[in-house]
Each structure stands twice: as structure tokens, then as C-alpha cells.
């Protein structure tokens, strides 16, 4: 709890709502969905890393003597990356159920262990390895840039087996072309296997890829992914319990009079706000008075979270936000929003929630010490009676 929260009862209540949410609301936490999202995030990141390596290695490795390396690079579209990541997640759940199934071992400590091994599993589990290569081949064949990279390999094969390059005017016959394509695919597969081997520890601190770029994915995973999935759920449940608005959320997270945010706060706020907007709970057009707080990072979050058109992740690519993490984090929080809302709609919980909200509204307005004391005593008495009267609903 930060110092300011001790002096402002409203902030104290909001902070407690957040901290308590780390320990209550187990069913609202949707651990199975969280595991799926984190696994798919990891596959998404891995596929991106593979293509970075393919773009770097193909022009150098497959350049016939006397020719300049091709300058074409291909990075998959957002939809291609998402589709491939989902395909690999589903495949992993099928071929390694004990580890990847979302029906068990869904606590964060288990997920951490899984992510540390995920790149090695792709290398070592034949079905996953083949499935990963299929995704790479499909993405390369579906885009002009990818086809250019493959043509670079085919040109190298023509030179290697002594067939004239098409630029000399002699075209290989159909049988020769079939052989060229088969050999080119074999070279692509061998290169992919080499990349798998080189970055099999990409989520571990010792990860080092051939290009010399240090890939400290473990640090990102632990300090950003695990942290944000935990903190944003606690934010979300506190917001829905207390019926906090955007202005309240900003006041809770701002750290000084200059309205500056800690580095983790903008991506955290973006995912929470976007999930609440997508679920129809926060809407600047219907309630503009809820969204007056702004400036600096707060305006950046508002611009992305409450913009109704286009794919959020694609729009984030040229921003300071991580589009991949934002996509999967928001997907998870939308699921949690539905669960939390349904949880509080049960009659006994609904009454208790209204009592808490009533007290929160009292604390949110300027009041005398006497009025606050009376309101708190009344609240505590009513809440105790309601808790004692709950007989059918499980808390």
C-alpha cells in the first residue's frame, strides 16, 4: 500500500479491493483461459523470433557465388501470426495433454515451468516440430515477401545442382523443377531445425541466438507477462466490485502531482480499460463525465482503449505498447469481466456488493468525520447481518 492511500479513505478502499482480489474470487480468475492465453502468447513470440532468424539467415546462407544477397524480408501479418499461434496451442494440447491441457495444472507456478520448456518441447516433440514447420511453410507461401525468400533458396539449389538459373534464359523442365522445390523445402526444414536448436532456450536467461542478439525472454515473461496477468485481474475485480470509473482508476494509479505513471501502469490500464470498453461497461460516448482525467500516458491509454474502429494490436505496432501482450491480456480480461459480472449477480452477493458500493460512494465524497463514522457503523452492522443470513449461496 502506498503512503497516499493511508490518508485518503477512498484510495484505501480501492487499494484494499485490489489487494484482496489477489486472494478471493477463485472462480472469476479463469485459470484455464489464462493458461491458454499465456501459451498462445509464447507461441506468437516464438514464431516472430523464427521469422527474424529466417530473414537474417536465408539471404546469407543461400546466395550463389558472385551474387548479392537478396534484400527482401518477410514478417508475417498479424492474422497469420495469431492463426499459427492458435494452431500450435491446440496441437500442443492434443499431443502433450498432461502438460498443455487447460483442464489441469493451471496455477501460475505451473505455467512458468511450462513456458521455460515450450521452445524445447517444439524441438523435441515430433508432432509439434512438424506442426511448427507446417506453419512456417504455409506463411511463407502465402505472401509475396515469403515467396521471394523461398525463391532465394530455389535459386541456390539450381546453382548447387548445376542447373542454369532462369535469368540466363534456360528454364528447368517440370521434373527438374519438382526436384528443385523438394530440395529447397528440405533446406528450409534443415534451417528451421537449426533455428529451433539455437533458440530452444529463448525463454531462459542463457538464451543466445546466432545473430548475437541477446533474447532475455525469461525476464520479459516473469516481469511483464506473469505480473500483468495477475495485477490486471486484481484491478478488474476491484473496479467491478466498487463500480469504479476511469477517473477513479487514474487517481488510484497516478503517483504524484505531475500525473506520472510507473512503467507497468500504462499497459496494465490499457488492457483493463479495453476489456471494460469491449464488454460495454465503460463507454466515453454514453458517459463522458467518467473520462475527464487525462494528460500524458493517460491520454495515450484512452486513445487506444476507447477507439472503436480497427484491430487494437495492429494499431499498437507503432506505439510504445507491446501489441502481442496487449492482445492476449485483453482477451483474458474480457473473459474475466463476464465471470465477475455473473458472480455478483447472485442475489446474496448482489446485496452485499451494493452495501460495499454504498459505503464506497460515501467515502468518495467530502464528508465530516462524524458523518463518516455514522456511515461506517451503519455499513458494518448491515453487512454483518447480511453475511449471517446467507445460507444457500457459497461465498
What's the story with the biggest beta sheet? none
Give the helix level as a range of percent: 55-70%
Shape: elongated
Mean pLDDT: 85
Please tell me about this protein's structure.
The protein is mainly α and 395 residues long. The chain has helices spanning 3-7, 9-20, 31-61, 78-95, 97-100, 108-124, 126-141, 144-160, 174-198, 217-242, 246-253, 265-278, 297-305, 312-316, 323-344, 347-364, 369-389. Helix content is 68%, strand content 0%. The longest helix has 31 residues, at 31-61. The model is unreliable at 209-215 (pLDDT under 50).
Secondary-structure map with pairings?
Blueprint: H1 3-7, H2 9-20, H3 31-61, H4 78-95, H5 97-100, H6 108-124, H7 126-141, H8 144-160, H9 174-198, H10 217-242, H11 246-253, H12 265-278, H13 297-305, H14 312-316, H15 323-344, H16 347-364, H17 369-389
Helix pairs in contact: 2-10, 3-4, 3-6, 3-9, 3-15, 4-7, 6-7, 8-9, 10-12, 10-15, 12-13, 12-15, 16-17
Summarize the model shown.
By secondary structure, the protein is mostly helical. It is built from 17 helices and no strands.
Question: Which tags fit this structure?
Answer:
mainly alpha; 395 residues
Amino acid at each position: 500500500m502506498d503512503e497516499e492511500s493511508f490518508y485518503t479513505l477512498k484510495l484505501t478502499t480501492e487499494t484494499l479491493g485490489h489487494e484482496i482480489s489477489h486472494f478471493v474470487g477463485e472462480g472469476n480468475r479463469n485459470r484455464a483461459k489464462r493458461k491458454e492465453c499465456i501459451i498462445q502468447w509464447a507461441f506468437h513470440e516464438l514464431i516472430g523470433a523464427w521469422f527474424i532468424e529466417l530473414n537474417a539467415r536465408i539471404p546469407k546462407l543461400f546466395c550463389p557465388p558472385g551474387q548479392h544477397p537478396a534484400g527482401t524480408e518477410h514478417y508475417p501479418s498479424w492474422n497469420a501470426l495469431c492463426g499459427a499461434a492458435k494452431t500450435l496451442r491446440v496441437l500442443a494440447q492434443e499431443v502433450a495433454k498432461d502438460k498443455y491441457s487447460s483442464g489441469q495444472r493451471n496455477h501460475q507456478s505451473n505455467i512458468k515451468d511450462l513456458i521455460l520448456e515450450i521452445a524445447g518441447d517444439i524441438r523435441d516433440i515430433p508432432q509439434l516440430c512438424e506442426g511448427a514447420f507446417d506453419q512456417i511453410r504455409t506463411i511463407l507461401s502465402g505472401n509475396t515477401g515469403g515467396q521471394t525468400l523461398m525463391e532465394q533458396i530455389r535459386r541456390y539449389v539450381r546453382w548447387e545442382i548445376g542447373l542454369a538459373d532462369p535469368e540466363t534464359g534456360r528454364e528447368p523442365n517440370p521434373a527438374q523443377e519438382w526436384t528443385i522445390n523438394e530440395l529447397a523445402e528440405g533446406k528450409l526444414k534443415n534451417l528451421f531445425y537449426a533455428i529451433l536448436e539455437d533458440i530452444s532456450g529463448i525463454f531462459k536467461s542463457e538464451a543466445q541466438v546466432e545473430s548475437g542478439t541477446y533474447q532475455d525472454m525469461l525476464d520479459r515473461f516473469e516481469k511483464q507477462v506473469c505480473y500483468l496477468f495477475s495485477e490486471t485481474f486484481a484491478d478488474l475485480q476491484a473496479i467491478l466490485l466498487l463500480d469504479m470509473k476511469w477517473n477513479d482508476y487514474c487517481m488510484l494509479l497516478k503517483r504524484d502531482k505531475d500525473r506520472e505513471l510507473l512503467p507497468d501502469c500504462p499497459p496494465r490500464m490499457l488492457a483493463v480499460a479495453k476489456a471494460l470498453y469491449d464488454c460495454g461497461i465503460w463507454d466515453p460516448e454514453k458517459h463522458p463525465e467518467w473520462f475527464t482525467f487525462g494528460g500524458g500516458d493517460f491520454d495515450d491509454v484512452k486513445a487506444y482503449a476507447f477507439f472503436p474502429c480497427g484491430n487494437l494490436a495492429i494499431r499498437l505496432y507503432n506505439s510504445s505498447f507491446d501489441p502481442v501482450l496487449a492482445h492476449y491480456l485483453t482477451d483474458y480480461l474480457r473473459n474475466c469481466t463476464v465471470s465477475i459480472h455473473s458472480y455478483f449477480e447472485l442475489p446474496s452477493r448482489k446485496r452485499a456488493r451494493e452495501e460495499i458500493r454504498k459505503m464506497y460512494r460515501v467515502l468518495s465524497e467530502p464528508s465530516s468525520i462524524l458523518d463518516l463514522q455514522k456511515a461506517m457503523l451503519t455499513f458494518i452492522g448491515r453487512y454483518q447481518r447480511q453475511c449471517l443470513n446467507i445460507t444457500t449461496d457459497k461465498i
